[in-house]
Amino acid sequence: MLKNILTVLRKLASAAMNFLIVYFETIAVPMSWAMGGTIMFTMYTELSNIFNGAVCLLVGLWQMSCIFTGRELPLWLKRLKFMATSCLLLTFLTVVFVLAPMNGEGGLYMLLCTSSMLYHHLLNPMAALLSYLLLEREPHLPRSDVRWALLPTLAYAAVILPLNILRVGQVWWALVPTILYGLYDLHGNITGTIDGPYPFMRVYDQTIQETLMWFTIILVTNLLYAFLLWWLGGNGRKSKVGLEFRT
Hints:
Blueprint: H1 2-36, H2 44-69, H3 75-102, H4 107-113, H5 117-135, H6 151-166, H7 175-179, H8 208-235
Helix pairs in contact: 1-2, 1-5, 2-3, 2-5, 3-4, 3-5, 3-8, 4-5
């Protein structure tokens, strides 16, 4: 009986956390739109948070249904949550260790605590990480799923880097390739030229070696923390992190 009660409470907490992220997203997206309009759809931060918001909505609704059915999240949805959380961790780590130092004194505060960045760079990543590690440990993902965390980043780079190289005035929106991991293309026109949007994506402001270096650093970092996230999420045999209720 106690185990059943604790399991219900865990699922309720998971649903609440995921719905909170969705709520944060309803605040942040209009702010991002007001600041940059359609340019927001060229930003990895915006796309990954929109993707995460959609996944969190699904997870929250599914957890509510699981309270009555007694089931856990299906494997495909747990995999999506893993991928979405990985995307947000990449955003957070890139802000803290790359973009903040590039912005000089006060850069960290500005990028983490102002405007929509408060939600997209700080609150959403931390909430997604906590819910994934502590509240959504079932079902376990196979180690081979770690590689899936790289797909959103690769899809984004496959769209944005050529646009920077070609300096085109009309671009394909990166939204759908990022969200659906390169399976579909959503065609749209964004007027104006692409500049980055991140400093390390500006291929004409750095050497080819520097571009390749940044590309390698980001992908390797992505892979390393994705493996750590996979292991801490209860998929490694020795992992003891999280709220697990066993008889």
